[in-house]
Amino acid sequence: MCYYLVNGIYLEWATFVKTISMPQGEKRKLFSERQKSTRKDVERAFGVLQSRFAIVRGPERVWHVDTWKNIMYACIILHNMIVEDERHTYNINFDYDNGCNEVSTTDVSIAPHPIFTAT
Fold first, then answer.
1. For the chain, how big is the Rg over CA atoms in Å?
2. pTM higher than 0.90, yes or no?
3. Measured between alpha carbons, how far is 28 from 18 in angstroms, rounded to an integer?
4. 59 to each of 28, 67, 69, 96, 115, how far by Cα in Å?
5. Residue 113 has pLDDT above 70, yes or no
6. Which of 41, 67, 85, 99 can pair with 63 through a Cys bridge, CB separation 3.0 to 4.6 Å?
7. Are β-strands 93-94 and 103-104 bridged in parallel, bridged antiparallel, or unpaired?
């Protein structure tokens, strides 16, 4: 049986674990804090997938649960592959020699671009 971390808008079901609104005691405070943190992490991760893949934003009710699960796995795997492929672009070089903190990630040409040159 699975449990789902939810907020107060969901129904009272045995599988829904809602946030404790006013936790009393150290154990309940710690549980509430960890639950909120985990729920926020999941919401952020899902937001990243929604922003990257339109299929995640669409209506999911038309597919069977196994199909939806496979779509989510595929999106997560693709996202991880994209992040891994773009990892080399994360290396930011700071130029400390000239006294300022300019960021240099690529070579930039200051010459006018031929498309934008007035004729």
1. 23
2. no
3. 12
4. 36, 13, 14, 50, 42
5. no
6. 67
7. antiparallel
Helix axis angle, 65-86 to 26-52, nearest 10°? 80
Tokens of 100: 């300022």
3-class DSSP string for the chain: CCCEEECCCCCCCCCEEECCCCCCCHHHHHHHHHHHHHHHHHHHHHHHHHHHCHHHHCCCCCCCHHHHHHHHHHHHHHHHHHHHHHHHHHCCEECCCCCCCCEECCCCCCCCCHHHCCC
**Mean pLDDT, range 22-27, rounded to an integer:** 89
Distance of CA 96 to the CA centre of its chain: 32
Residue range 53-106, pLDDT digits in tens: 888 887 666 778 888 888 888 988 898 888 888 777 666 655 555 555 555 555
State the pLDDT at residue 87.
Answer: 75
